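so my prof wants the structure for this chain in the tokens format not the other one, which i didnt know existed until like an hour ago. anyway here's the sequence
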Amino acid sequence: MTVSPSEPQPTASAYVDRVEALFERGDYRGTLSLVAEALESYPESTALRLWQAIATDASGDTESAIALVRPLTQMGDRETRTQASYLLRIWQAPRLARPQTWMTDVPTVTAASDRATVIRAKVATGKVPNSETKSSEFSAGLPEELTQEPTESELPEWWLAIGAIAVILLGMVTFSYLTQAY
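here's what i got, hopefully its the right format
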């Protein structure tokens, strides 16, 4: 957001809006870069400093974010002080250990997009899987977690879900029939 000599200087509020948009897109480096540029023109802006701390934490440097937000708990308007205090409490809170059973492994976006790319390439070349195609031939180049067949222990969950859906649909049809009869 560099300004040419003919353009007017953006306001601090305009910078904050742009910073927020970059942050929401997940561009934390871009956010920090734009905040640094904006703070050159508006060093007193507590809103920009708050976004600097938030983006620093999102980038993985919580200790630096704490150092940036700590002074904001004593300066600026009431809302900024409240937000800064809230963030400081969160970032300084002890980290709780999470049991492994609370976690779910999710394939990375890259792995999923790689799979889509491979499938599109196979379709474009006419190598679409069918009953005669070996699944290993079709899944070549895919990450291992995307090519594994479901285990027998995973299959009952699907059957249970399908059964539950069938019972619900049967109940809806029966209810509809009974209400029409009366």
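also thought this was worth mentioning. The radius of gyration is 27 Å.
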